[in-house]
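2024-03-11 09:14:02 INFO worker-7 job=invfold-0412 stage=load source=structure_tokens
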């Protein structure tokens, strides 16, 4: 089964390249073609889930290692373990659901303010962009060579840039430039850290480096390398105060771009901590862990307070990601099996829940022509009962209600802070736990405020300046109003239900049966920490 990792990369890559051929008119349409290709990738991910040996989740499986650049001893090394498998499956699922959303939701509805609806004017280009993006995302989770990891880590930047810049909202160009500048600068610093590791150890093999647990590197070198690699990963996570690109990118990105950005791209940064920074640089991790905890809890509180101040629904969800990723970083900072398990669980839960929230935010904007919460008029549960109910479910899942997936990751991260790893100051981490607990309370506060503005209250008409406006985009890119129509207040449509139900089911499944995921990640976490089970 060593062909599976290659197939997961080859299928979307070949699918994208076929769109460049002159004969690639792809009937009945590019979006259906993209759905078929992403469906095949999802099928391969399911095969991997079935064939995976769960009794050996702590070791690499489906491994493939071939010479890549012989002169530099670089290898095309791929593999999967209990840490990467859930993220690969999550990536394949979210990409497929995005194509399902595009495929059946291609008719432009009243109030839609994006440029041609979800890429309606350039469907082949959009499908090509999403498939290349999928190659980079899956490749990042498969790579077991430091330079190969970096290559895939960077591949995602270009398609995401174009996704925001071409199919985004009115401020798309500034948001796309901000996104690419932040992430590229972070990547340069990370590359320097990776090269330092290579210079000190003479190898780029992640499996070998993790098994040696910092062998061949002094404490000082590990600290420097951890700071460099960690900064690059922190930008993508994003960690406060390196987060400022995120709200603009989420606000301006099309719905599918926001879903993949929150659901997968942010996980690439946190995954790097689990795959590279902590196991390869353990002494550096021990020195920097308290500082990582400080930035984590500041991000938790800052993200919650920023959410309370937002009017735009997409911007509020974007800032909520800063807080949720703070819990992930706090779990990593504990350097314990419990804390890192919590971080990995929160990673997957956040991808499912926030992906659903951005789908819902896009649906609301399409119907009302605005995402400004005070302007929506309230009373959605009376006007659109099913849409309002799913929004309520996603909100209470994100605030961490017990029984839903959002609860376990945050709880385990706080539990890890209660008893951090040996050598870390317990009083400091107890303070982190208390601050994180306050952040969880504030998280509940801003989601309840959001629900009170949108779903509850007496129904009223949208009052925003954009409500009911149908906007046409000329060849020059300028927008001009061509008609004023009433908001399209139809409840959940079939294609939306098809895209959202799998996420709802998985949120419930992992919330009620957390062992399903924890039994997969625990052996892998013990292996990366060098713990004998």
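2024-03-11 09:14:09 INFO worker-7 stage=emit residues=533
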């Amino acid at each position: 089964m060593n062909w599976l990792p290659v197939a997961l990369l080859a299928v979307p890559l070949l699918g994208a390249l076929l769109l460049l051929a002159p004969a690639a008119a792809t009937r009945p349409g590019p979006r259906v073609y993209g759905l078929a290709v992403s469906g095949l990738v999802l099928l391969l991910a399911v095969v991997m889930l079935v064939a995976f040996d769960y009794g050996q989740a702590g070791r690499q499986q489906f491994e493939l290692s071939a010479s890549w650049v012989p002169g530099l001893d670089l290898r095309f090394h791929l593999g999967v373990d209990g840490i990467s498998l859930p993220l690969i499956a999550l990536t394949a699922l979210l990409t497929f659901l995005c194509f399902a959303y595009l495929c059946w939701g291609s008719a432009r509805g009243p109030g839609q303010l994006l440029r041609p609806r979800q890429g309606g004017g350039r469907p082949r280009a959009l499908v090509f962009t999403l498939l290349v993006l999928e190659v980079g995302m899956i490749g990042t989770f498969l790579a077991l060579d430091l330079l190969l990891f970096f290559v895939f880590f960077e591949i995602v930047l270009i398609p995401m840039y174009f996704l925001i810049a071409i199919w985004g909202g009115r401020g798309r160009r500034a948001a796309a430039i901000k996104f690419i500048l932040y992430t590229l600068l972070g990547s340069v610093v990370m590359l320097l850290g990776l090269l330092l590791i290579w210079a000190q150890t003479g190898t780029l093999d992640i499996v070998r480096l993790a098994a040696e647990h910092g062998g061949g590197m002094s404490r000082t070198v590990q600290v420097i390398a951890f700071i460099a690699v960690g900064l690059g990963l922190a930008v993508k996570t994003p960690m406060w105060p390196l987060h400022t690109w995120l709200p603009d990118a989420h606000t301006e990105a099309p719905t599918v771009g926001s879903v993949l950005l929150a659901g997968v791209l942010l996980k690439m940064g946190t995954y790097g901590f689990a795959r590279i920074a902590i196991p390869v640089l353990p002494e550096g991790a021990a020195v920097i862990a308290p500082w990582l905890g400080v930035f984590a809890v500041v991000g938790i509180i800052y993200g919650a307070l920023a959410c309370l101040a937002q009017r735009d629904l997409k911007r509020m969800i974007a800032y909520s990601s800063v807080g949720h990723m703070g819990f992930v970083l706090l779990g990593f900072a504990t350097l314990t099996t419990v804390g890192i398990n919590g971080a990995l669980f929160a990673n997957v839960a956040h991808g499912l829940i926030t992906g659903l929230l951005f789908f819902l935010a896009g649906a609301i904007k399409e119907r009302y022509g605005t995402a400004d919460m005070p302007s929506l008029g309230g009373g959605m549960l009376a006007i659109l009962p099913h849409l309002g109910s799913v929004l309520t479910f996603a909100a209470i899942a994100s605030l961490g209600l017990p029984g839903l997936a959002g609860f376990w990751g945050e709880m385990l991260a706080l539990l890890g802070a209660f008893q951090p790893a040996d050598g870390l100051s317990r009083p400091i981490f107890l303070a982190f736990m208390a601050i994180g607990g306050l952040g969880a309370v504030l998280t509940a506060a801003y989601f309840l405020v959001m629900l009170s503005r949108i779903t509850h209250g007496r129904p009223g008409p949208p009052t925003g300046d954009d409500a009911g406006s149908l906007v046409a985009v000329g060849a020059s890119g300028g927008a001009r109003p061509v008609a004023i129509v009433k908001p399209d207040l139809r409840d959940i449509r079939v294609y939306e239900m098809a895209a959202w139900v799998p996420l709802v089911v998985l949120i419930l499944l992992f919330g009620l049966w957390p062992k399903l995921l924890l039994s997969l990640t625990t052996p892998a976490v013990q292996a990366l920490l060098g713990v004998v089970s």
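2024-03-11 09:14:09 INFO worker-7 stage=report msg="Residues 3-529 form one domain."
2024-03-11 09:14:10 INFO worker-7 job finished
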